[in-house]
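Hi support team,

I'm opening this ticket because the web form for multi-chain structure prediction keeps timing out on my end. I have pasted the exact lines I submitted so you can reproduce it. The total is 442 residues across four entries, so I didn't expect it to be a heavy job. Is there a limit I'm missing, or should I split the entries? Thanks in advance, R.K.
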Amino acid sequence: MPSLTKKKLSPVASAGLDESVRLEILSAAAEAFMKNGFAATSIDTVAEMLGATKGRVYYYYKSKADLFFDVYREAMRINLETIKPLAKSDQTPSERLSLMAHAHLMLILEHFPFQRVVTQGIEMHLSGSTTPDQRKALSALIAARDRYEQLFVDVVSEGIATGEFAAGDPRLKVKAVLGTLNWITIWYRPKSKQPSAQFADEFVNYITRGLRSPNSYWHNG
Amino acid sequence: MPSLTKKKLSPVASAGLDESVRLEILSAAAEAFMKNGFAATSIDTVAEMLGATKGRVYYYYKSKADLFFDVYREAMRINLETIKPLAKSDQTPSERLSLMAHAHLMLILEHFPFQRVVTQGIEMHLSGSTTPDQRKALSALIAARDRYEQLFVDVVSEGIATGEFAAGDPRLKVKAVLGTLNWITIWYRPKSKQPSAQFADEFVNYITRGLRSPNSYWHNG
DNA sequence: GTCTATACTAGGATAGAC
DNA sequence: GTCTATCCTAGTATAGAC
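Hello R.K., no limit was hit. The queue was backed up. Here is the completed structure from your submission:
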């Protein structure tokens, strides 16, 4: 694959020998965005983290927004890939939901910078994206986010139908569930030591109790 | 009070005839920070929202960070003032916690821009604040935030002691509770129509169930 | 008190050397 | 592919008029 053919096509399309470079940039960018947010992060900083200058970064991404979007996209790819099988698995809605919540929590802890970028992406307004291409890219990412959330909504809806979960608006319930977990990206600061198993249990138990119908508390205390 | 005496003292200290102007600036700033975040908000934009130029803003605040901090401070003042009486009231822990959760949700909905600034403040790093004064100001605000959270932690701890709430780490439980509610500041976009009563119920019920000990489910279904 | 300059810098983005 | 050099805009902050 001669270098001419991959000159500034869409970053994702330009996969080849230098895919590893792209991933390096991606993860440096995720780290930088995590620490300072999109607006306060400079391409110089990202480059510095790579031991390079912005020339390198701009070779792969034509703008800071594109770089941000690609981090976002990568995060959603991982998330969907992880959660989808659990959502469609062959178990009761409440069992599936517990697994999904636990897995989502693990995604947050294990890919923290990426998940924080997702949070920033949710807060981000389309008004910020100047070019039409960028608006399109952001819309696509929001759509991916919606599909992800829909996996949870479907399971919760099922659970309400079976009576395992309390009646109510499944969408709001999912906002509550994901809020419980995603809020971690706001206050948590990843240190050397990983959080204990109790950490995860506390959140997952809270969620399953929070959803459970009062009538079906016997499912497992 | 001659105008000389209030020349650029701490913004909060400079209360007087023009307190109303300060509040106008504060709420315009909250709105602007809500929409675009701290870094992407320009003082020009804030001034424009006031139908003025930045001269006005800089007369009251010596930097953008100071302005942000004052919005944050005002938000925490309102929050503490609202929640403290409920936390100390003469009821069972679970009753108090329900009231506090409901009140916190209402604070979010009714002072949305201010609450969103609080969220941004939590994400913000001290590394961002350059001057020593600013670091001190941010520390004080973080301390206020901690006191606020502690009100919840105390009630939850009591509830665990009485057996109303499930055993576990009260701090993590409070992170879960506040996450459920504060996450609303991330995804919610205030429109003309206020959310229904069902909106609040869904969240508060989820929270109370999430905390409740399995043994004490009979308290009220 | 508020406005209109204006100084000054950070940082996005591009061009062109290598 | 990556770097250096450069352009250029946006935006903080201040000075000084009114």
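A quick check on our side: Chain B has a mean pLDDT of 91. Let us know if the file doesn't open in your viewer.
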